[in-house]
Amino acid sequence: MTQSQPSPNDRHEPDSPKLEAQGITKLFPGVVANKEIDLALHKGEILALLGENGAGKSTLMNIIYGLYQPTEGQILVDGNVVEFHSPRDAIDLGIGMVHQHFQLVPVMSVVDNIMLGSESVDRGLLNRERVAAQIQELADRYNMPVDPNAIIEDLPVGVQQRVEILKALYRNADILILDEPTSVLTPQEIEGLFAVMELLRSQGKSIIFITHKLKEVLRIADRIAVLRRGEMVGEADPKTASQENLATLMVGRKVTLEVEKEPASAGDVLLELRAIEAFTDRGEQALRGVSLDVCAGEIVGVAGVQGNGQTELVEVITGLRPATAGSVLINGRNMTNAPPRRITEEGAICHVPEDRHMYGMVGAYSVADNLVLNSYYKPPFSSGLTMNQAEIAQHAEELVARFDVRTPSVNTSGASLSGGNQQKMVVAREFGRPISLLVAAQPTRGIDVGSIEFIHSQIVAKRDEGVAVLLVSNELDEIMALSDRIAVMFHGQISAVLPRSDATREKIGLLMAGVRADD
Amino acid sequence: MKNSPPVAVLQRIRSRYGTALLVALALVVMSIIVNMTPLKEQTWLRVLFGVSALNFTLRATVPLVLGALSGILCERSGIINIGIEGMMLAGAFGGFVAKTSTNHWPLVASLVFSVVVAMAIGGLMGAIHALFSIRFRMDQIISGTVIIILALGATSYLYNRDAIAEGKFSSIPIPGLAQIPVVGPVLFDNPPITYLALILVVVVHVGLFYTRWGLRTRAVGEHPRAADTVGINVNLYRYVNTTLGGMLAGLAGAFLVLEAVGQFQEGMTAGRGFISLAAMIFGNWTPFGALGAATLFGYTQALQNELLLAGVTQVPRQFISMLPYVVTIVAVSGLVGRVRPPAAEGKVYETEGSE
Amino acid sequence: MATAFPIASLQRVLRALFIPALALLAALLAGAIVMILSGDDPLAAYSGLFQGAFGDGKGWARTIRKTVPFILTGLSVALAFKVSLFNIGASGQFVIGSVFAVAVGVNFEGLPAFIHLPLALIAGIVGGMLWGAIPGFLKVYTGAHEVIVTIMLNYVASLFAGWTVYAGGTQGQTPGPLWDRTAGAISETQDVLASAQIPWLFGPPYRVHYGIFIALAAAILIWWLIFKTPLGFEMRTVGHNMRAASYAGIRVNFTIILTMALAGGLAGLAGGIETLGLNHKFAPEFGGAVGFDGITVALLGQTHPFGVLLAAFMFGALDGGAATMQFESGVPADIIQIIQALVLAFVAAPLIIRMIFRLRQQTQEEAASAVSTSWGGS
Prior knowledge:
The complex is a heterotrimer.
Chain A: E1 19-28, E2 31-41, E3 46-50, H1 57-64, E4 72-77, E5 80-82, H2 87-92, E6 95-98, H3 110-115, E7 121-122, E8 125-126, H4 128-141, H5 157-170, E9 175-179, H6 187-202, E10 206-211, H7 214-220, E11 223-228, E12 231-236, H8 243-251, E13 269-279, E14 285-295, E15 299-303, H9 310-317, E16 325-330, E17 333-334, H10 340-346, E18 349-352, H11 356-360, H12 367-371, E19 382-383, E20 386-387, H13 389-402, H14 419-431, E21 437-441, H15 449-464, E22 468-472, H16 476-482, E23 485-490, E24 493-499, H17 505-512
Parallel strand pairs in A: 3-10, 3-11, 6-9, 9-10, 15-22, 15-23, 18-21, 21-22
Antiparallel strand pairs in A: 1-2, 1-4, 4-5, 7-8, 11-12, 13-14, 13-16, 16-17, 19-20, 23-24
Chain B: H1 5-17, H2 19-36, H3 43-49, H4 51-76, H5 84-101, H6 107-135, H7 140-158, E1 172-173, H8 183-187, E2 189-190, H9 192-210, H10 212-222, H11 224-229, H12 234-261, H13 272-282, H14 287-309, H15 317-335
Antiparallel strand pairs in B: 1-2
Helix pairs in contact in B: 1-2, 2-3, 2-14, 3-4, 4-9, 4-12, 4-13, 4-14, 5-6, 5-7, 5-12, 5-13, 6-7, 6-12, 9-10, 10-12, 13-14, 13-15, 14-15
Chain C: H1 6-37, H2 42-54, H3 57-82, H4 90-106, H5 113-142, H6 146-164, E1 200-202, E2 208-209, H7 211-228, H8 230-240, H9 242-247, H10 252-279, H11 289-300, H12 305-329, H13 335-348, H14 350-356, H15 364-369
Antiparallel strand pairs in C: 1-2
Helix pairs in contact in C: 1-13, 2-3, 2-12, 3-7, 3-10, 3-11, 3-12, 4-5, 4-6, 4-10, 4-11, 5-6, 5-10, 7-8, 7-12, 8-10, 11-12, 11-13
C-alpha cells in the first residue's frame, strides 16, 4: 500500500466510508487492468480519480458498479462487505454510474430510458405518466431541466448526460460515478455540470469523478486519487497540488504540458471550402454552408461539441460523403465530390480518420498490409496483375522504425497492437508519403500520453514543412495547444474563425454553445 | 407539419408502420367499394377485388404474418432469424406427425394437441437457433441457414409417405359479426388459427410497446449494453424471445398442415419463411406494419389463384407464380425506403468482464 | 513466404484442417445417433456409404462426378464470403446457368466443337453472372439485403427455368421455348448437340467428363485472384471493413457487384458443366440443391479455395455413396442431408466442436478468420 489515509477522523466505525474498495485486482487475458487497488469514498465528498487513457480507471469503476467481477479483493458499502453479480446488485445498494459512452437507447424516449430496468407497472402495463412526473420532480430539485417525452437521439449530448444523471438519481443513487463526464461538454456546460455536482454533494451524495484533465480535478475535487498502469500511485490534496506534479504522478515522468512550436509562416491558400452543405446518414442536414480556408504552413483547428457537423465536414473534404451544395478546392483544383482516390492522389492529401477501427485500419490485416491500405495498387507494391509481398514488407519495416510503431513484427495483425501503436501505424501510413494537405480528425483520441506527444510533434513538423493542416478535435485543450487559427463549428456552420492569440477558452466555449460573437 | 389532420395521421402511420399498411388498407377499402356497388359486375374488378380474392388473401396472409411476428420477436431482441422457413417447416411436420398419431382421438382434441406439438417443435428450433447464436457465437445468418437445412433434411428423412392426417380445422363463424356484408364472410367466418393470428398481432403490439417485457426486449435489441448496465439479463431475453419466435413460426407451420392443406408435403413452406422476413422489414419491425405487408404478399398469392381460376392463359402460369417472389424483391429494394433495423441485431453480446 | 518456411506453412495447413476434420467426424457421430434413435444401423449405413463412394471404379467415378458441381458452387459461396456477402443464391444461378448453356448447346448446329462448347460454357457463366449481379446491384443501390434477394431469385429462377421447358398445359397454355417437342407431356429440352458436349474422360458406364479439370482450374484461378492480386486485396478489404475500404479509395459498390457477378458466374458454370457434361439436357428436376450445399462446402472448406476442393470431395463422396447406402442398409438417403446440415452447424460454430472434444480456447487468429456476414451492419 503506497497511500496513507487522508484524514485521521475517518477511521472509526460510526463514520465508516460510504464506499470502500480493498485490494482490487482485475486480470484480463494477458493484461493486469487493476492491481491491488485500495480506495475509500466518504459521504458528501467528490473524489477525483485521475489517470491517463488505459490506466484502469474505467475497469475499476465497472467493478464497483458490478459489471465486472474482480479477480481479487472486495468492495464495502457502508462498512459491509458486498458482492456484486450484476449492476442490479450495485444499483440496489445505491450506486449509480454515468458511463463515458452514454448507456441510453437512442430511439427511445427519456421516460423509457430512465425507467428501463426499474419500470413502473400497473396491471401489466407501463405507467409512463407516473415516471414522467417523478422525472420532472428530480429535474426541478437538481436544476436539470429535460423533456421526459423527448427521444434521446434528438437531444444534444449535454442533455443526454443530464438524462444519465437523472437515471441514476431515479434509482435513488447515493454514490454517483461519473466517467469522463466533461469530454463532451463546452467549458460553460462543464461549469454547469460542476454546479450540479456541488448541489448533489451538498445533499449528501458521494461522487467519484473520473477524468484525465488536471484543471478540472483541481477545480472541483475534495480529494484526488491517481491511477497509473492499473496501480494506485498516490493521493493528492487539491489545495496543495499543482498541475505539474499531478501530471508527473499520472504519467510517471516529467511531461511538458505545452506543445513547443514556432510561430506559423502561412503560405498560399491550399484548401478552400465554399458554402458546403451535406446530410447525415439519417437524412438530416449536417452542414449548412461551411466556408473555410486553410493555408500552407498553418494549422487550423476546428473546435466544437461533437455532433455539430465536424465528422461530416471531414468526410466531404476527403470524398467519403457527397456535398449537396458548395465546393471543395484543393490546391486550386475543384475536388467537390471527387472519388476518394483522386482526392488522395491529385490533392496530395492525407487523412487521419476520427475512428481508426472504423475507417483507419483493417484489424485482421497485418501491420504491413495496413501500411499499404491506400497504396497497394501502385508500384512497387503492385506490378500489373500481382502484388509484391517483399516490397510491402520492406516498406513496412521502414515505416515501423521511422514512426516508432511498437509491434512484434510487421506480420502481426493490426488488431493486436495497443491503441497508441495502432494510431501511430495510421499516422505512419498517412505521413510517410509526400503530402500538401493533412486532415486530422481526433488524432489522439483514447491513446496514452507518450503517443499523444509523438503525434503532436509530428503534426507540428508537417506544418513546418509547409503542409496545410486541418485539425478537428473534441478536446479543446488539443485545439488550443496546436492551432494557429481556430474555427468553431456549431449546428453545421463555422460560427467564427479566430487567430490563436484572440482565442480564449471562454470565447470559444460560448461559440461552441451557439452564442454568436456579436451577441 | 401543417397538413390537415387526416393526412398527418396517414403520414404518422406510414413513418411508424411502413408504407405497406397503407397500401393494404387501400386494398381493403377498394374491395369493400367494389363488393358493395354494381362495380362487382365487372369481371376484372371481381377477379382483383372480389370476396373470393379477399378470402384467398387472408388464407395466404396468416402464415406470413405469423412468420413476420416470429421475426419481430427475435429481431427486436437482437437475434436475426433467417431460419423462420425451417422453423415453420419443422412445426408443420411436428403438427402432422402429432395429427397422424392421434387420428383416433376426437377431432378437436387431436387438432389442438397437434398445434401444441407444432409450436413446441418450432420453439425447440428457436431455442437451438438462440443457443447457436448466443452460446456458440455462430454468425446468426449462418445459424439460421443451419436451421433451414436441418429442417429440410430431418423432415424428409423422417417423413412417412403413407401417413395420412384425418381432418382439419373448419370455420367457426362468429355470430352476428359474420353477417356483416363483405367484411363478415372475409374476417369473421374463419378457422381458429386465423383468428389466433389476428389476435396475436394485437397482443405482440401491446406487449412490445406497453409492457415491461417489451421495453426490455427492445432495449436489448437496440443497445444491449445499456440494458446490461441497468441489470437486465441481455442473453436471457434473447433466449426467451427467440424461443417464443420459434413457437410462432411453428404455429404458422401448424396452420399450413392443420388448417390450410390438411396434409404435410416436403418443402411445403415454399419460401413463406423468407417472405415473412421481407414482410417484417417492410412493416418496419412492427406487428401492424407486418400485418399490412403480409396482406400485400398474401394478395399476390391470392391473385395467382384468382387469375388461374379466371382462366387467364395468355401469361404463362410460371410467370404468375413468380409474383410473390418478385414483389418481395421489389418491396425489400424499392418500396421500403429507409428502414431502421434494431441497432444491435446480429451482434453477439458479451460483457468484457466475463470469461 | 510459403517457400521460405515450409514447416511453418505445413503447420498452418494442418491447423486449418483441424476444426473441419473434427466437424465432419462429429457430424458422422451425430448422424449415427440419429440413425440409432430411428432404429437404423449406422455401421451398415456407413459401410454402405463407403462402399458406394470408394468401393470400386464406378464408386470413384460417382464421387468425382458429384464433386465437380460442389467445387464450383462451393467456390461461388466462398468467394462471396470473402467480401462478407452471403450468396444463398448459388442454386438459382446454377439453374439459370444450366438453361443458358443448354439454350446455346441445342442450337447452332454445324459449329465446330472447339467453338460451340466454349460458347455454351460461357453462356452458362454469363447467365449465372447476370443472376448474381442482380442482388449485388440491388444491395448497392437500394440497400436490399442479398440474402432475401438471392433466395427470392432462387424461386424465380426455378420457375423461369420450368417455363423454358414447359410442355404446355391442358388449358391451352403454350409450351416453353426450349421444350423438346418429341418429349410428349414431359417437360425437358432435347439433348445438346454433340459439338457442345463436354467429352468423357472415362465414358459410360463410368461417365466422368473433363469438367473436373475446369473445376480444378477455377479453384486455382480464384485462389490466385483472392490472395495474389490487387483486386483480391480490394475484395478482402471490403469484406473485412467496408468503411476502411472506401477510406482507402476502393470502389466498394463496384467490388460488391463484381463479386456477386463472379460468384454467380461460378455457380452458372457449375450448371453449364452439369448439363453439357453429364445430363446433356435440362429438366426442372436437375435443380439447384447443389447450390444450397455450396454454403456448407464453402464453410467446411473455411472459405479457402483449396479447402473448398477438399470439402467438395467429401460432399461428393457423401452424395456418391448415398444411393448404395440406402440400397444396402435400408437407411434412407435423406440422412445424408441431416449429416450435411450437422457439418454446417459444427463447422460454423467451432466452439461446439471445442466443447465436444474438450479443446482449449480458440486462438485470436481463428477468431479473426471466423466467417461473418453483413446483415444490417452498414
